[in-house]
Amino acid sequence: MHYYGNETIMSLEQVLRLRPNEVRILEWVRSYEFLENQYGLDDAVPYFLEIRCEGDGVRIRRNKITDFPDYQCEEELVFPDVVRALPVFHQWAEKILHQLESSEK
User: Fold this and answer.
1) Between the CA of residue 41 and those of 11, 25, 31, 50, 72, what are the distances in Å?
2) The organism sits in which domain of life (predicted)?
């Protein structure tokens, strides 16, 4: 886990363990653009996720990396609170991890 200003960057596995109170405290969490493979090397991940507490609610985004560090937002949703946003955020992380596991086989 790394901190850059008011942004916390963590692995997709760490994202899956996030709890609502942690998101409230951290306010802005983003997943890494890389994932450690079975050999201990970093492989590029085609997506990264963001969850951010804002004045009007909690915004989650799924971003596709086009040409690192460039990216485009593929999906963005706003929820009234973290409790409603976090399950969708977790689903997105699980889907990315599943896609990566499938592509390795």
Assistant:
1) 14, 31, 17, 23, 25
2) Bacteria
